[in-house]
Amino acid sequence: MQNVTDRTSNPFGLEPPFDRSDPDDRPAVFGYGDANADFHVIGDYPGVHGGESTGVPFTETESGRAIQDVLRTVDFASGPRDEPTLENCFLSYIHMCSLPDGETPTDDDYATLERFFDAELRAINAHILLPVGARATDHVLREYTTQRHRLDLEMDDLHATDIRGRGFLVVPVKDPVEWYGDDREAIVSRLEAILDSDYRQTKGVATTVG
């Protein structure tokens, strides 16, 4: 069953549980994109992956622009870079609230926002999860697979690999500021291979999230 919303930004009407943003920033950078997407790209927080001014994940910062360039290469994104048109792709953060310059989220901050991210992830119900960076990858592997206990969080090794989740295929992405060599080509090639496959069978061969 498809989602009923056709809104691109914050399609499920989430409200930030706290506002500690700087005056010129958005209180939060909620999910953005195709609410019926098969691919869900999951970042860390706005200070790392961008969007504090635009309100759109993966804009403004070096890492955000690099991820968006990958999405454009595989035809998920088009149009203006600060407000792209996304097809079959949804973007969100495990910590969506903005923080003052120089501050990073605490473990309590992440815990407070976990239910908001989880609600959005379940509502999108994508087939492929693409966590970007170590923090997002750790969270997704712990919460949505049974594999975290047997995997070291070595992003060099996990980057652009397939990990079977509870109802999902997880493809970790090393943070772009740490890319070197053929890291960009590796994630582009992995996405192209998935798109060329019958990837929607992912739901049929894994157990349901619950």
Helix content: 25-40%
Question: What is the number of helices?
Answer: 7
| Distance N to C terminus | 17 Å
**Uncertain segments:** 204-210
| Cα gyration radius (Å) | 16 Å
Arithmetic mean of pLDDT: 90
User: Main sheet, how many strands, which sense, barrel?
Assistant: 6 strands, mixed
Overall number of strands: 8
Q: What oligomeric state best describes the polypeptide chains here?
A: single chain
Strand content: 5-15%
The string of secondary-structure elements, in order, is EEHHEEEHEHHEEHH
Helix-strand makeup class: alpha/beta
Numbering strands along the chain, what is their spatial order in the largest sheet? 1-5-2-6-8-7
Overall shape: globular
Layout: helices, strands, pairs:
Layout: E1 32-33, E2 39-43, H1 46-49, H2 62-73, E3 77-78, E4 85-86, E5 89-93, H3 107-124, E6 128-131, H4 134-144, H5 155-158, E7 163-164, E8 169-170, H6 183-196, H7 202-205
Parallel strand pairs: 2-5, 2-6, 6-8
Antiparallel strand pairs: 1-5, 3-4, 7-8
Describe this structure in words.
With 210 residues, this protein is of the alpha/beta class. It has seven helices and eight strands; from the N terminus they run E-E-H-H-E-E-E-H-E-H-H-E-E-H-H. The chain has helices spanning 46-49, 62-73, 107-124, 134-144, 155-158, 183-196, 202-205, and strands at residues 32-33, 39-43, 77-78, 85-86, 89-93, 128-131, 163-164, 169-170. The strands form two sheets. Strands 1-5-2-6-8-7 form a six-stranded mixed β-sheet. A hairpin with a 6-residue loop joins strand 3 (77-78) and strand 4 (85-86). Mean pLDDT is 90; it is low at 204-210.
